[in-house]
Amino acid sequence: MTNKKLYVLGGGGHAKVVIDALAASGTTIAGLIDPRLEVGTIVLGVPVIGGDEWMTKLDPQGAQLANGVGATVKSRVNRKLFDLWSAQGFSFASVVHPSAIIGAEVELAQGCQIMAGAILQPHAKIGVGTVINTAVSIDHDCVVGAHCFIAPSVTLCGGATIGDGTFVGAGATLLPGVKVGNNALVAAGAIVDTDVADGDYFQR
Ligand SMILES: CC(C)(COP(=O)(O)OP(=O)(O)OC[C@H]1O[C@@H](n2cnc3c(N)ncnc32)[C@H](O)[C@@H]1OP(=O)(O)O)[C@@H](O)C(=O)NCCC(=O)NCCS
Containing domain of residue 174, as a range? Predict the structure, then answer.
């Protein structure tokens, strides 16, 4: 438990999912920080309080962040913001929707996000800043590295592993024990039945 006030970075689509998960777990959000929205805009009951200039008013000793910026295949602004504000001493809260099922001895690193309906089976490990999106199923002994974006309804069968910075498109399935490297891209709906090297693109 922390006494720090929690601020969400962003007020767009991904932020809505983050706000909803935080609200569902009884967490109070002090405000949203988004340079693209007018101050005073209300998103799911939470006001936008300013843009990046607001960050200079916050003290990392008294404020914690949640990353409300999503990722796309081409844009990883969420990672840039994580690195930028972490370097200034801010910590990122992990977000776990109460409807997610978290099995025994699952390891969740700082700032990861486990969205509604996700299932993580025993001994799964999720890295720093990684997003496990709506209804993702991660089976026993899977490892997902840091700053990955696992899109809705992806399935990882037992023992599958993913490196850092990888994007897995909606509904893809990784067969048991498959290894996907760092900064790779798996197309939506792909059935990954072979290892994928660092930086590679897989679609089948
Ligand atoms: C694989 C992907 C990256 C390709 O993107 P792209 O390079 O912009 O490709 P395009 O959309 O221009 O499509 C090129 C061709 O591939 C096909 N295609 C695109 N995505 C495909 C997929 N996932 N599976 C099979 N075929 C696909 C298109 O229909 C198109 O076919 P055509 O040339 O016969 O018309 C993208 O489609 C994808 O899967 N993105 C993931 C999106 C996602 O899951 N987001 C999560 C949001 S929460």
Answer: 94-190
Within a domain: 101: yes
pLDDT in tens, 6-55: 999 999 999 999 999 999 999 999 999 999 999 999 999 999 999 989 89
Whether residue 102 is found in the same domain as residue 180: yes
Q: How many domains does the chain have?
A: 2
Q: How far is CA 196 from the centre of its chain?
A: 22
Query: How far, in Å, is the centroid of ligand 1 from the Cα of 187?
Result: 7
Q: In 3D, which of 35, 22, 109 has the Cα closest to residue 77? A: 35
In a domain, 79, yes or no: yes
CA atoms within 13 A on the CB side of 11: 24
Residue in the block written with tokens 């891209």: 185
Helix H segments across the chain?
A: 13-24, 77-87
- The CATH number of the domain holding residue 72 is 3.40.50.20
Q: State the amino acid at position 55 in one-letter form.
A: M
Pocket of ligand 1 (CB under 6 A): 73, 133, 151-152, 169-170, 187-189, 203
For residue range 43-82, list pLDDT tens digits in order: 999 999 999 898 988 999 999 999 999 999 998 899 999 9
